[in-house]
Specification:
The structure is a single chain. The chain is of the alpha+beta class and 346 residues long. The protein has 8 helices and 10 strands. Helix 2 runs antiparallel to helix 3 (146-177) and helix 3 packs parallel to helix 7 (302-312). Bound molecules: adenosine-5'-diphosphate. Residues 240-241, 243-244, 268, 270-273, 277, 281, 286-288, 290-291, 297-304, 327 line the site of adenosine-5'-diphosphate. Adenosine-5'-diphosphate is lined by residues 240-241, 243-244, 268, 270-273, 277, 281, 286-288, 290-291, 297-304, 327.
Length: 346
Amino acid sequence: DWKNQPYIVTVSSIPNQGYVFMFQNTDSIQTLIDRLNNHFFITGLITAILTIVIIILLSIALVRPLNKMKEATIQIKSGDFSISLPDIGNDELGKLAKTINLLASELMHLKEERSQFLATISHELRTPLTYLKGYADIVQRKNLSIEERDKYLSIIQEEAKRINTLVEDLFELAKIDQYGFEMKKQTIQLSEFIAHLHHKFEPAFLHQSMRLHVEMPQKDINVNIDSARVEQMLYNLLDNSLKYSQTATETTLKIWTNTKDLYLRIIDNGSGIQEKDLPHIFKRFYRGTYSNDSCKGGSGLGLSIVKELVNAHNGEITVKSNSKTGTTFTIMLKGAVLNEKDTFSR
Ligand code: ADP
């Protein structure tokens, strides 16, 4: 019992002689144990203090950026997108901060785009509405001849038509922009579909003393497309050919396929698109030089609608234009062609 007794004792027997008792003073053991205990206590204390300090430092390091991110998201929620979280590395927190920064700049961009879009719409609507009001006031005058009245009424009709087209185009874009916009694809016999379109569009060309020539494969091909959307694409492109071509010219609608993809090409001999306009014609509300000059142009939304619809079909649209030969738009609808096996299984 070294804790309570002054000595520890060992006893050894020596055969036939007796016993040897050995005594060891327990003071030195107790001093050693006390010293060791002191060391353990101090080490434990230092470890505990260090652990607390590290926990505090770590939580400050983690919580501070998290708090900043929380503040940033509250700021975004209240509509202020001018936030910029500092770069805190490439770990999970750093990636989260970068994503929040990206989200804010995307939202800022969307906000700017939206206000610009609204400003353009109101400008686009204001002009024809001003005409409508002005000519309606003139038509009300008593001393107007019948010819003059007819002239002003036809302008009113024309402007009302413009507003109608603009609103329809905007409605179409709003539908495409909607979250979850879905294509209604069906299996369609290509030649029947194109013949139907030819029949539908030809009168508009004849009315302007123009010709619509259609070239398409003679064999039966089935395609998987949203026919209403493809009709809308062709309508917009053919309508442009009508608007930007002179009388007695010809527009060709050429259709062909490879094993998987469907190609639609519209070739006109119209005024062509100036080189400086070409990179911008698919932007919303962009009108080329000619359409501004001659007031022929529509809303400037037609081609942006076509582009969105082509994208929704997983396709591509390209344009080539030249003021001498006219304009060629080519649409490629990826994977639209069904081979016999697909037709059977779909
Ligand atoms: P718009 O309603 O003005 O026709 P679009 O988006 O359909 O708007 O076309 C954008 C611009 O591209 C037009 O303003 C016009 O300048 C040019 N453009 C489009 N198609 C043709 C074409 N077939 N021939 C000449 N210019 C064209």
